[in-house]
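In the laboratory, one determines a bound structure by crystallizing the protein with its ligand and collecting diffraction data. In a computational setting the workflow is compressed into a single prediction: the sequence and the ligand go in, and a structural description comes out. We illustrate the idea with LLP.
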Amino acid sequence: MIKYINSEKGACESVTMELYGSSRVLENGELAIGECAVTRLAQEFGTPLYVYDEVLIRSLMKTYRQPFEERGVRYRIAYACKAFCTVGMCQIVNEEGLWLDVVSAGELHTALTSGFDPKRILLHGNNKTEEELQSAIAADIGTIVIDNFHEIELLHDLLQRAGKVMDVMLRVAPGVDAHTHEFISTGQQDSKFGFDLHSGQVEQAAALVREYRTMRFVGLHSHIGSQIFDVEGFRLAAERLAQLCAVLHTKYGMPIDVLNLGGGLGIRYTAEDTPTPIAALVRDMIEVTETAFAAHNMALPLLMLEPGRSIVAQAGTTLYRVGSRKEIPGVRTYVAVDGGMTDNPRLALYGAKYEAAVANRMRAPANDLVSIAGKCCESGDMLVWNAMLPHANPGDILAVSCTGAYNYSMASNYNRIPRPAAVLVAHGRARLLVRREEVTDLIRLDVPLADVGAEPGANGGIL
Ligand code: LLP
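The predicted complex, in structure-token form:
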């Protein structure tokens, strides 16, 4: 990781934006990502623009594998594609040999369209529809992670009708509080996800699954939350799951082949975030799980992880064009850009913090305290509060880093603002991943009324 410190011409020394992966400052002071100058990218693809660093994505995938390889532990890494899911992204994941965690018919369709090997797909979801399960069955995907009792019956019924047997895992709510934002914390007992461990629901579910010839029980899953910085929550989850595995083995004769500890490994967005580096955290996770299983004299099952954010967040940078500026004397200066909560709702949703830079003048003195606003009709439509930046003028390119995860995937068309394009950059080449939406795309699904002003229907207007 390169740290760019802006200290030119006696300006206050400030780091306006950490540079990750292949991002660097060119001689002319401009930011380049994957050896592509940001002004060129903005010119060619327009703004706002999501720029993805291909080399960094691929290297992070390798980072996840290394600790397992070093220790000779059987493993499986699945990329949780909810973080960023496009056909091109799925192609990369497939090429790198990872599994893919999908949670909807849409994600599954994207994966299958990309040519992803269905045997390496696992399906999650706390309310999988009949259609979603049917698509998964038809595609012969690798594993279905069952979330609840309704799903056991539904899946059994559908499999019986299809005459198929599939691998299943059970999602466990291990009762672990991951100490992250409550909206992205999932492992606590009071959660909509998974079978409650505490009250014995997991055992009950396992006993049911054992009776059904349509399902091959392969193991357990738990995901305790997202943006987690250390191993403690995982240690607790591993201990409870190991204990549960022992019970399932001895009491029900159900050995565990796969233990899936979910995703959730955190990243640095700003200097306030101090996560354990991925390789070290994965090593810690392996260790605590080994210890937990050894305590029950059990061999370690195949260990599975399903990271999303930590694979793509730092690999993504959003480029905006600076527009209006509003200075409120003695209060605050707003600099507005041509995007906002429609392409990045994370500040509005979670109070997320980001770093930014004036990307066409990275070496200019950072002596202007501004807040970066979006263009939506909402006061909460902000990208960064209180950033020390070089003076940004209309037409400048503003970069916000670490926007690769849950930005495009949670983007909206609020105010009928078209969603940005996404490009993949590496070695001086930029390839389109998602084309920019046009206003014509926005009305593609609208149905004009053919009979404006028509009389109400029969039966007094009730359908
Ligand atoms: N596995 C399961 C079952 C999950 O629910 C999730 C994320 C992951 C894996 C991947 O977690 P990650 O490694 O990305 O933390 N929209 C929120 C994040 C929601 C996470 C939902 N589940 C955000 O923008 O922070």
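The domain at 2-53+314-442 is CATH 2.40.37.10 (Lyase, Ornithine Decarboxylase; Chain A, domain 1). Keep in mind that any predicted model is a hypothesis to be tested, not a measurement.
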